[in-house]
Design brief:
This is Helix-hairpin-helix domain-containing protein. With 63 residues, the chain is mainly α. It has a single domain, classed as DNA polymerase, domain 1 (Orthogonal Bundle). The protein is built from three helices and no strands.
Length: 63
């Protein structure tokens, strides 16, 4: 199971986008609107799906 203390394995551009926006853990992404993350440069549909899937494994999700 993915840890809430790390980000899931997504591409480097998406990881950089999250770090630049201040997100360094999966826990911080719980409840964040999907549309907000989609606006980040480097964040694509596959990365968003991976993040959502990882959150769902902890009974959480994007906003």
């Amino acid at each position: 199971m993915d840890s809430l203390d790390t980000l899931p394995k997504i591409g480097a551009p998406a990881t950089r986008a999250l770090h630049d926006a201040g997100y360094t853990t999966l826990r911080q992404l719980a409840g964040v609107p999907r549309a907000q993350l989609a606006k980040l440069h480097g964040m694509g549909p596959k990365a968003l799906r991976t993040i959502q899937d990882a959150l769902e494994r902890h009974d959480l999700g994007l906003g």
